[in-house]
Amino acid sequence: PVHEGTAKQSRVTLQFHCDPTGGTGDPDEYPVEFDPHECLYTVYWPTEYACEQDQGGFGWTFVYMCFFGFVMYTSIGCAYNHVRLRQNLGWDAMPHSLFWRNLPRLVQDGIQFTLSHFSSNVQRPSGTHRNDNMDGVEYEWN
After folding, report:
1. Does position 5 have pLDDT exceeding 90, yes or no?
2. DSSP 54-69
3. CA quadruple 124, 130, 131, 137: dihedral sign
4. Residue 54, pLDDT score
5. pLDDT score for 79
6. Half-sphere CA count of 23, side-chain side, radius 13 A
7. Residue 10's closest CA among 18, 19, 1?
8. CA dihedral 115, 121, 124, 125 (to 10 degrees)
9. What is the pLDDT of residue 26?
10. Going by C-beta distance under 8 Å and a sequence separation of 6 or more, which residues neighbour residue 80?
């Protein structure tokens, strides 16, 4: 919108500030400043989401635990296979070595199967199709 008495477009700037007890905030309580020379409204929004977050969280804990579990699995499995089963160090001592050798090929086959399955089930429009929506945007597919 154009501000009254000027030809400038009005602009709004949201400035988020850390407030650990602010929750998402209440719009009725936000202080708003107006700069008439710039036609700029500045809204100061106190919210807990502007505070620095702990970078750990459950996601990274899960990743670390999976990595630690894999390292323990391979270490203990290799030691067991080498000491108890007298297998040579390297791929022979790796627990379930045949699976790990075939894993890249299994992943590649899975991706190829998924792509071929989805590409055969997707209908593509033929020719040019136009659709004038009520939102004022014209969409066209070729």
Report:
1. no
2. PS-HHHHHHHHHHHHH
3. positive
4. 67
5. 92
6. 4
7. 1
8. -170
9. 73
10. 95
Structure-block tokens of residue 23: 């929750």
Pairwise CA distance, residues 16 & 82, whole Å: 59
Percentage with pLDDT > 90 across the chain: 25
- 35 Cβ contact partners less than 8 Å away, ≥ 6 residues apart: 42
3-state helix, strand, coil in the chain (%, to 5): 40, 20, 40
- Tell me: the pLDDT tens digits for 44-95? 888 887 887 766 677 888 999 999 999 999 999 999 998 998 888 888 889 9
What is the distance between the alpha carbons of residues 107 and 78, in angstroms, rounded to a whole number?
Answer: 24
> At 116, which amino acid appears?
S
Which residue, chain included where needed, has tokens 């998402």?
24
Q: What is the dihedral of CA 37, 38, 39, 45, to 10 degrees?
A: -120
pLDDT at residue 96 above 70? yes
Residue with tokens 């400043």: 33
Do the Cβ atoms of 4 and 35 come closer than 8 Å? no
All residues at 6 or more sequence positions from 131 whose CB lies less than 8 Å from its CB, including other chains: 138, 139, 140
